[in-house]
Design brief:
Blueprint lengths: L1 H28 L2 H45 L3 H14 L21 H8 L1 H28 L4 H25 L1 H8 L1 H21 L3 H25 L6 H34 L3 H10 L4 H6 L5 H8 L21
Helix pairs in contact: 1-10, 2-6, 2-7, 2-9, 4-5, 4-10, 5-8, 5-9, 5-10, 5-11, 6-9, 7-8, 8-9, 8-11
């Protein structure tokens, strides 16, 4: 029993950490201009994998068994290792990022493993990203818990069917957004408006849900939220980390992706439970609270470029190499 719990804890942490490290590597691999073009396609590939993976597992688990399926999944974790070294070499060969260190032995970060926390709390740019993640997680959690409450009236089989259909639609939309929309949105609207797009839509959806607290409205909101998150918000926010040095990218980013994200998730769940189970608010009331809560307000302000764009502009001013950059890692900052 203890081993089962330990394995579950490891899987939970790994699912967060490996995504954070992966996107750190992508931000380290591509320049800003390149990230604008390819990050959305990378997110689309992740959505394709999320759709195909469960389908393959469901088809072969009856033949090979659960234990062998887990061994197969574990072995597949080794496949990216040679790809990582190959991509690392391409940094200066095919990607023409000659100013980025391509020698892994010379690119060691070193330093204090807790330096990421110090950098996060002393860097206004990272604090702004952390605030974005915290507020976004809070409002997203409200939508998720609203869904949980409405689905209580259905049987387990009905819930499974509904959630499976929702996941399928989300993966299809995410794939389409990543291929055809996200890069164009960043180019035409700019980073602040792109980051604010999905949160503003969530707040508008919560207002509608407050007046029409029915499952159809909520599921439509969930589809838009999840597809927008995976297809637009996630790749766009990962582009922000192309503006920091390697140590910040690999040490402070996991602090934001794991500690801040999970902290916001836990805090919002406690707040939601207190308002529903404690006070007795229903779905409509909670949707109204979510739409009018502080997490929704900053998204409207962020469309004017505050605060991330202001800090990013300060950091990327010509001839400036502020804290969080290293002079050897300066890149062109043309599209922000």
């Amino acid at each position: 029993m203890l081993l089962d719990k330990a394995f579950y804890l490891w899987v939970t942490l790994f699912s967060l950490m490996h995504l954070s490290v992966f996107w750190s590597f992508m931000a380290d691999l591509f320049s800003k201009e390149q990230s604008r073009r390819v990050f959305a396609f990378i997110a689309a590939g992740a959505s394709a994998g999320a759709a195909v993976g469960p389908l393959v597992a469901s088809q072969i688990v009856s033949d090979i068994g659960t234990d062998n399926l887990m061994l197969m999944a574990s072995a597949m974790l080794l496949i990216p290792i040679p790809i990582i070294f190959y991509l690392q070499r391409l940094k200066s060969v095919d990607l023409h990022n000659e100013n980025i260190q391509a020698d892994l032995s010379a690119a060691k970060i070193g330093g204090n493993p807790f330096a990421g926390f110090k950098s996060f709390f002393t860097n206004p740019y990272l604090l702004a990203i952390g605030a974005f993640i915290l507020l976004y997680t809070t409002i997203s959690s409200f939508v998720y818990f609203e869904q949980t409450n409405l689905l209580r009236e259905f049987t387990r089989e009905e819930r499974t069917a509904i959630l499976s259909s929702l996941a399928a639609v989300v993966n299809i939309l995410t794939f389409g957004l990543g291929l055809f929309a996200t890069s164009r949105l960043v180019t035409k609207l700019g980073m602040p408006a792109t980051l604010a797009l999905v949160p503003v839509f969530i707040c508008a959806g919560l207002i509608i849900l407050a007046f029409a607290p029915i499952l159809t409205v909520l599921l439509a909101l969930q589809v838009a939220r999840q597809a927008g998150n995976y297809g637009i918000t996630r790749p766009a926010r990962e582009m922000l980390f192309t503006s920091v040095d390697r140590e910040t990218r690999f040490k402070s980013k996991p602090v934001i992706d794991v500690a801040v994200y999970r902290g916001g998730d836990a805090a919002s769940s406690i707040a939601f439970a207190g308002l529903t189970d404690g006070i007795g608010f229903g779905v409509g009331a909670m949707a109204g609270i979510g739409a009018g809560s502080p997490p929704c307000g900053p998204w409207r302000a962020s469309t004017s470029g505050v605060p991330l764009a202001r800090e990013l502009s300060r950091r990327t001013a010509p001839g400036r190499s502020p804290s969080g950059f290293r002079s050897s890692e300066k890149r062109q900052h043309s599209y922000w």
